[in-house]
Amino acid sequence: MDEVIIIGGGLAGTEAALQIAKRKIKVKLYEMKPVKFSEAHSNENLAEVVCSNSFKSNLLTNACGLLKEELRILGSELIPIADKVSVPAGQALAVDREKFAEEVTKLVEENEYIEVIREEIKEIPKDKIVVIATGPLTSEDLSKEIIKLTGNEGLFFYDAAAPIIEKDSINMDIAFFGNRYEQEREKEEDYYIWLKRIENQEASYINLPMNKEEYETFVNELVNAEVVTLHDFEKREIFEGCMPVEIMAKRGVDTLRYGPLKPVGFTDRRTGRRPYALVQLRQDNQEGNLYNIVGFQTNLKYGEQKRVFSMIPGMENASFVKYGVMHRNTYINSTVLLDNTYKLKSNSNIYFAGQITGVEGYVESISSGFMVGVNVANRMLGIEEIEMPIETVIGALANYVSTENNKFQPMNANFGILPQLEEKIKDKKLKYSKLAEISLEKIKKIKM
Question: What is the pTM for the complete model shown?
Answer without folding.
Answer: 0.73
